[in-house]
Automatic annotation (TrEMBL):
InterPro entries named among the record's database cross-references: Histidine_triad_CS, Histidine_triad_HIT, HIT-like, HIT-like_sf
Short sequence motif Histidine triad motif: positions: 106-110
GO molecular function: catalytic activity
Gene3D superfamilies in the record: HIT-like
Pfam families: HIT
Residue ranges of domain HIT in the record: 14-122
Protein name (database record): Histidine triad (HIT) protein
Highest taxon in the source lineage: Bacteria
Active site: H108
Matches recorded under CDD domains: PKCI_related
């Protein structure tokens, strides 16, 4: 099943509204497949979310049809981090499902930077 078909199984989220420009966001990058915007509750001096335009609720819903899209999102994260000047490094996080701490069910990569990240994460 393609991610597009899975759309009907996912709930409309706030990120769909950001993609459609129905609510404002500080968009820092956009291409045909992905959108990046600053997180409304930043957990680091730089906190940017990279999302696919095509709705996919969570990483664990991805399948082999999503190979190219997932690769594109990672490369987009790299590009956005570079553009944000995070030459000292950064962290890329995907929260997946309830125990992963996911709150918005539209796949997103968090790019966190501008400070030293602790490990293990909370
Ligand atoms: P997660 O917990 O991994 O599902 O992260 C969801 C993130 O989305 C969280 O860090 C806050 C952010 N967020 C939620 N609503 C909005 C919004 O309306 N605008 C923006 N820019 N970010 C949002």
């Amino acid at each position: 099943m393609s991610s597009y078909n899975r759309m009907s199984e996912t709930t409309e989220t706030i990120f769909s509204k950001i993609i459609r420009r129905e609510i404002p966001a500080n968009i820092v990058y956009e291409d045909d497949l992905a959108l990046a915007f600053t997180d409304v509750h930043p957990q680091a001096p730089v906190h940017i979310l990279v999302i696919p335009k095509q709705p996919l609720a969570k990483l664990s819903d991805a399948d082999s049809h999503d190979h190219a899209l997932l690769g594109h999102l990672l490369l987009t994260a790299k590009r956005v981090a570079q553009k944000a000047g995070l030459e000292n490094g950064y962290r890329v996080v995907i929260n997946n499902g309830n125990d992963g701490g996911q709150t918005v069910y539209h796949l997103h990569l968090h790019i966190l930077g501008g400070r030293l990240m602790a490990w293990p994460p909370g």
